[in-house]
Structures are given as C-alpha cells and as structure tokens.
Amino acid sequence: MATHLGSESPRAGGKRRHCRGNVVARFTASRITGRGFSRGTQVLSSHLSMEAMSFVTEDRKTAQESTFPNTHTFDLFGGVDLLVEILMRPTLTMQKKKPKMNDDLVKDCLSVLYNCCICTEGVTKSLASRDDFVLFLFTLMTNKKTFLQTATLIEDILGVKKEMIHLEGIPNLSGLVQSFDQQQLANFCRILSVTISEPDVGNDDKHTLLAKNAQQKRNSSPSRAEVNQVTLLNIPGFIERLCKLATRKVSEATGANFLQELEDWYTWLDNALVLDALMQMATEEAEQSSTESSDESSLATSPLRHRLPQSMKIVHEIMYKVEVLYVLCVLLMGRQRNQVHKMLAEFRLIPGLNNLFDKLIWRKYTASNHVVHGQNENCDCSPEISFKIQFLRLLQSFSDHHENKYLLLNSQELNELSAISMKANIPEVEALVNTDRSLVCDGKKGLLTRLLAVMKREPPDSSFRFWQARAVESFLRGATSYADQMFLLKRGLLEHILFCIIDSGCTSRDVLQSYFDLLGELMKFNIDAFKRFNKYVNTPEKFRTFLTQINSSLVDSNMLVRCIVLSLDRFESQTEDVKVVEVLSECCLLSYMARVENRLSFLFRLINIINVQTLTQENVSCLNTSLVILMLARRKAKLPFYLNALREKEYTEKYPGCLLNNFHNLLRFWQRHYLNKDKDSTCLENSSCIPFSYWKETVSVLLGPDRTSLCAIASYIDEPFMDLDRDLLED
Predict the structure, then answer these.
(1) What is the 3-state secondary structure (H, E, C) of 189-256?
(2) At 470, which helix (H) or strand (E)?
(3) How many CB atoms sit inside 10 A of residue 676's CB?
C-alpha cells in the first residue's frame, strides 16, 4: 500500500495546496492519451501523495479538516472511475494479442487510487463493490514492478468489503502464488489474513453462545473463510514456503541506539504502506549505491538517515513474520488442523522458531522496552510487540490438545519426561513415545524451556505474561500427564505463578486469569504440586491473599476451583498412600475445599453469576465447574443435600425459585450445546477424567420431570415459583 514518495518532505506540500487543485481539475477534465497521459498521472500522483501522506503523519488533522481535499475533487470529476477503466481496458479488448500498459503508468494509477482511498470517504467501499475490479487487481500482482502498489490497494479494499472474496475465483491462484518470491509471498500474507479469518462480530451479544449456536444452525455449511483455507492448503508448496519465511534468520543491527531508532521510526510509520514504500526506496538506493561502505561500525555511528535502510529491513522482516505466523495460526485453528499440524512438523517450523528465539523473538531488552500491551490484542502496537504476541498465539494453537506438543522439547528433555514416568512407575504417554525425534528442537534448550525462562523475567503487569501463560497452559491441556506437570514443577513454575498471584502486586485481570488457569492444569491430581503449594503459601496472610484473589472474580478463577475439587475427590480415594494422607492433613488449600460449606459457597456463586442469555466462551466454564461439584456429590449420594442447600439459600436471600430456575435453564442449554459437539465433549472428559456419559446422565437426572425424585431440580422449586416450562432458549 505504498504512497508515492517524492523528493519533498511530506509537510512541504501544504504550502502549495492552492495550486494542486488546478492540476486535478485539468487531469479529470481532459482525456489525455499516450505519453501525455502517463506524464499526467505521474504529476497527479506526486501531488495527491502529499495529501495522502498528511493522513499518516502529524498533518492528519489539517488534511481531514480541509473542506474540499484534492482527492475529493478528483473523485467528484470522475477521476476514480476513469482510472479503473484505464487499468481494465486491456482485458476488455477482443484482440488476441492484449495491449500491454506501461508499468510506470500502472504504478501511478494504482498510487492515485490508493491515495483517494486514504483521503476520500466512500472511494474504498465503491471499489470494493466491484467484484470484477477486485479480481482483476490480483492479475496485476504477476508483475514484480507493480506488485507492491497492487498488494497495498487490494489490502485496503478487502478491509472494507462486505462479503469475503472466494480465493477460488482468482484466476490461476496456484500459479500466481507459486510465481511469488519470498518477499512477495510475505506481502501476500497480509491479504490472505483477511480472506481466511472469520469476521469479527464485535463486543456485543453476538458473542454469546446462544447467538453463536443459532448462527451455526442457520449456516451448517462451511463458511467462506473455511473454504478459502482449504483452497490455500491445496496450493503445492504453500505451507512449506510459509515455514521457511517464518524461520529464516534476520541480520542483526549493531549500535546501542537501534531499538530507540526502531521505535522512533515506527511512531511515524503507523501505516505499513509507508514502510513498504521506504523499503522499496531502500532497496533501490542499495542497488544504486553498491560502492558505499557497509562496515558495521560506520552504520552504528552514521546519521539516522544513513542507517534507516538497515533498520527498515529488520522491521520489515519482523512485520511480515507477524503476518506469516498469523496465517499459520489461523490454519492451525481451522477444520484442517491435523493436516496443517502434519505439514508444520514435517517442515520443522518449531525447531526453526527455537533457533530464532534468543536472537530475534525474545532478545534482551532494557526495562523501557517492556511495554504493557493493551486489553485488545489487535491494538496498534510496535512490530516487536506484535511479533511476540503472534509467536505466543501460534505456540498456544500448536500445543493445544495435540500430540505434536512434544516437538517443543529437545531430545534431552524428552528423555527427562521418560525418566520421570519410569521413576513414578507409570507408563509413558503414547504421544511422547510416538514423537519423531528428528523433528524436535535442537540445541541445549527446547522452545518450552526458553519460554519459561523469559516468562519469569517479565514485569508483573506485562500482558506478555498473559500470552506466555496461555502458551504454557496449552502444553498441559488435554488428558492430564503427571510427567508433563513434574517437568514444569522442577523448573519452578508453580512458585513463579504463586508469586505473581500473591506477592507481585499484579492487578491485571487478564494476567491473573491466565495464571489461575495455568495453575489449575499444573496442580490437577498432582499430590507433589499441592505439597509445593503448601510450602510456598506458609502463612495465614498468604493464604488469605490467595483466597481473596480467587474470590474477586470466579469467572477468572473457576477453572482452578474445579481443579482443587477434582483433586480432592481423587486424593480422598487414595488414603492407602501415606504421602497422600500426609498432604491431605497438612495442605491448607485441600483442607479449605474439604469443608462442605465452602464448596456450597462456590456452587451458589457459580450458578448466580451466569444465565443462558449471558453465557459466552469465557464464562461457560462456570456452568461446567458447578456441574463437576454436583457430579462428585452424586457419586457419594449427596446430590439431594446440595440441591436442598440451594433451595434454602434462595429462601434465605428471599428469592425463592430464582437460583434453581436459572440453573434448570442453564442445564437445558448445556444439553443443546454439548450433546452435538464431539470436540467440546471430549475436552470435558479429558480435563475432568469423568466419562462424558456420566456428565450427560447427571444432567438428565437433574432435569428429570418427576417431582418426587430427590435428585431432580423440579422437586426443590415450590409450585408458585416454578418457571420451567417457558423456553428461554428460543427468546
């Protein structure tokens, strides 16, 4: 999306604004042909680019307040339609030999169109509505000289297009992609990211599970994004080339001021288009100045304008690695996940990223570079921050519920897992046994171990902690593995998490939620973890602080509550083990959860903070945690006691029927949501070690219509307050 960059400063154009309107009027009023037209577009592009540049620099406000900007005048007199007609004219001829347009003319036409998109409201949407023009633009990408201008215009157009395009509709897409060099493919990933991601539904009620289920019911066929993902996977060599792009090394800049230089330039270059243009200029300058000295010491001491090309190349590489990782991440989360996983393993993506970790992904920075990321992971932030976050999201997607997660370790670390299993006299996990050792990480440390090391050094409120914790948690998710837990416990992860929750002063809810979830996976069914917990939380003050953090937001901490309840239930059945008995009697956390009044308190609040209309992917875990508490009670024939306690709580709070009616509706929704989703039901079974058949059976018992049944919710709601017939799910 390169704005035409002339020899003048972007700010200098404002002094001559009064004369540029005449150029625009003259151009659009006449139909110049041949050399005259080419020269006209060149002049026009140069003039309009000054106005466009003001939108991506400090002059933005001035330009936006202009009553009749030049680009608006150009569009008003039909200039945009004229350029579209000129660009597409060769495709409309009936001649066998298509006329070829001058490359510079095409570049200038595209530059003017892009400047109009930036400055004039409605131009981009107008171009996006023309499917023929959008698909035609892709054909221009075959020419390397016009590739950059074409790619940037396409990206801008697709960003506002109402309907996602079909990649299958692009003429000879496979040949087009295969013709790209690596740099072009990196640029193309920016476009692809728009075509394979499901549209963002925003932060409204469309995020609720009720709305999502209704949408899925209406649209049972694969979405356009899913179809586009399949199209990409069918392009020969596509994934292999992305893996090479993601893992290729970047030349390191020298000089102590490099990071500050990078930050200063990116503050100005808040639009990637300008960066692309500068990169193109830098490349051209490098070709013209091959005789200049490239000595590193001279680069470090030369003025910023002399060091810019090298700095820009590094930032450029980082920015496009972000896009490549994003595309791989989306494909990993799609319906073809297993196919993608197989290819990423085969092309050694993880070992390649491991080799880049210390030199590029997580270099040692000064404290000032630890920028706390905003609440929205899609916010406008520096390339370095975006790169780190996208890298962590990729690791999370790669490890989550997949046997390939062991590729994050090296051979020595895999041997360590085997030794842990042998010492505990338990069989090795099948996925570990089946791991292809030729595809794991190289070097002294695997990627997971490197991640743990930087995680411990991160400032308390840094949002990198959120993504780091999510990535590590994904390694543990699925069927609980004692060896995996011990591998992380031996590296001090539990103590680090507890320090963050109790002693660090961390106040970020996102970070705390991620740490609660990670702690739950780390401690679940692991008696050694509870023993370590008790050793760290060794004073009443620390334990009170820990409980305060849990109780401050059950939506954030309920997965940890579930872990404690499940672990307690298992340990109570292992009283023949002396070690278990010892920890049960000494651990303050297990003793706290063993008291029935505390379990009931959690149950009341878990049911009370959600209802069918507000259920989302974030808080549905509260419903499942409440179900876990009741399933374990049912196993011990105590379900009537818990249901009666809920009824008594209602009357104490003077809201008879409120809690139980709400819970009844939640369970009806649970049946509709989970009974038709194999993946979700498998996750529930693996994470709880409770067969899904028992989940279904317990829900059916609770929803039983027989009011004489002591295990049916209906039996505990008095007739005047019963509201079970109304189908809230259809509201």
Answers:
(1) HHHHHHHHCCCCCCCCHHHCHHHHHHHHHHCCCCCHHHHHHHHHHCCCCHHHHHHHHHHCCCCCCCCC
(2) helix 464-476
(3) 12
- pTM, full prediction: 0.83
| pLDDT for res 383 | 78
Where the chain has pLDDT below 50, the residues are: 1-37, 56-65, 67-68, 201-206, 252-273, 291-308, 366-380, 728-731
CB 405 within 8 A of CB 399: yes
DSSP three-state, residue 89: helix
* Chain centre to alpha carbon of residue 355: 22
The answer to whether the CB of 379 falls within 8 A of the CB of 453 is no
Bridge partners (DSSP) of residue 410 are 441
The C-alpha R_g of the chain, in whole angstroms, comes to 30
**pLDDT at site 49:** 58
Check residue 303 and give its pLDDT: 45
Residue 441's SS3 state is strand
Task: Identify the DSSP state of 646.
Answer: H
* Cα distances (angstroms) measured from residue 231 to each of 134, 245, 338, 534: 18, 20, 16, 53
Q: By the 8 A CB rule, do 417 and 391 touch?
A: no
* Backbone phi and psi for residue 410, each to the nearest 5 degrees, phi listed first: -100, 180
Query: Cα 289 to chain center, whole Å?
Result: 41
Alpha helices in 430-463 (DSSP H): 430-433, 447-457
Report residue 98 as tokens.
């298509």
Which of the 8 DSSP states describes residue 335? T
Q: What pLDDT does 39 receive?
A: 53
**Dist CA 191 CA 267 (whole Å):** 23
Q: Which two tokens stand for residue 570?
A: 């298992």
**Contact assessment for residue 644 and residue 596, using Cβ atoms and an 8 Å cutoff:** no
The CA distance from 382 to 386, in Å, is: 6
Residue type, 679: K
Q: Angle at the Cα of 468 (from 466 to 474), degrees rounded to 5?
A: 100
